[in-house]
Amino acid sequence: MNSAPRTGLEVRGLRVVYPGQPPVEAVRGVDLTISTGEVVALLGPSGCGKSSLLSAVVGVIEPAGGSVAWDGEDLTRMPVHRRGFGLVFQDGQLFPHLSVGANIAFGLEMAGMGRAARTARVADLLDMVGLAGLGDRGVTELSGGQRQRVALARSLAPRPRLLALDEPLSSLDANLRARLAVEVRDILHAEGTTGLVVTHDPAEAQVMAHRVLRMSDGHLL
């Protein structure tokens, strides 16, 4: 029996419109394909529509038109939690009352994974992001770079088929940002995770992605 072809992400004619007088069309009929295991960066200035496009792909924003599919399955109206996608924000959005390990394990616990399997997965991810031995530490005790590593590990924990990263390093200083860009790239490659990265930094885009697409005024160039 032949398995269905794995085509990855397919976006067709995607539009994002924000209400107002007049309405603002942030994404204007974008087509985008990302192969399984590929990392693509969307590069452009603030207000060009790149974060709106990423949000519509993940399902945080409902598009005004067009479609989002994965391996041929239409996800356009599917809720966020059923898409199998992960999302890393600029500020990490960690749970401040939970430890590092509990933050990483949160999605696994919600999915019903057993304690032993959760513990093993968290340990593997802590080692992968360079935070081995810090699972019991409070996230408020960490540096900015360490917190972003925890956010990355938490998003990777359920093994998402696509990881979307919205300006994940922009709040960090230049030296740390450059170093983490390499580390994030290597982690995505090691996990075999398909990635969509939004950034305004050309050097960061080149380091993190297999392919860089420029965006302007709601269009991919």
From TrEMBL:
Signal peptide: none annotated. GO terms for molecular function: ATP binding. The keyword Chaperone does not apply. The keyword Ion transport applies. PROSITE patterns: ABC_TRANSPORTER_1, ABC_TRANSPORTER_2. It comes from the Bacteria. InterPro entries: AAA+_ATPase, ABC_SmlMolc_Importer, ABC_transporter-like_ATP-bd, ABC_transporter-like_CS, ABC_transpr_FbpC, P-loop_NTPase. It holds the Pfam family ABC_tran. Residues 11-221 form the ABC transporter domain. CDD domains: ABC_Carb_Solutes_like. Keywords: ATP-binding, Cell membrane, Ion transport, Iron, Iron transport, Membrane, Nucleotide-binding, Transport. PANTHER family: SPERMIDINE/PUTRESCINE IMPORT ATP-BINDING PROTEIN POTA, SPERMIDINE_PUTRESCINE IMPORT ATP-BINDING PROTEIN POTA. This is Sulfate/thiosulfate import ATP-binding protein CysA.
